[in-house]
Amino acid sequence: MTPFRLLSIIVCFLLASVPWFYGGGSGLNDEGLPDWALHSFVVMILFSIFLVYALHKYWDSMADGEAEEEDSTKN
Fold first, then answer.
1. Which residues contact 34 (CB under 8 A, 6 or more apart)?
2. Pick from 13, 20, 21, 68: most CB atoms within 10 A?
3. What is the rounded end-to-end Cα distance, in angstroms, of the chain?
C-alpha cells in the first residue's frame, strides 16, 4: 500500500468521524448517548483498529524504503 493511499484512508476516517448529518436526539438502544456521539465513538474505534493494523503491517517496509532513499542520495 502506498503512503498516499494510507493517507487517503486516514482522511476518509477522520471525515467520517464528524457527525455531519445528525440533527439531535437519542434512540432507545444507545444507553442515552446522542446519536452523533455514538457514531463518532464507533468510527474512532474502527479508525484506531485500522491504524494499529497499518502500523503493524507497513512500518518496516516504509522505514526500509526511507533508508534506501538516503543511501542512494549519498552515492
1. 22, 24, 25, 26
2. 13
3. 28
Backbone angles phi, psi at 25, to 5 degrees: 90, 175
| Distance from chain centroid for Cα 20 | 18
Asked whether 18 and 40 are in contact (CB, 8 A), the reply is: yes
pTM exceeds 0.85 for this model? no
* Residues 7-62: tens digit of each pLDDT: 899 999 999 888 877 665 555 555 677 778 888 889 999 999 999 998 888 888 77
Q: How is residue 27 written as a grid cell?
A: 434512540
* pLDDT score of 29: 59
25: which DSSP letter? -
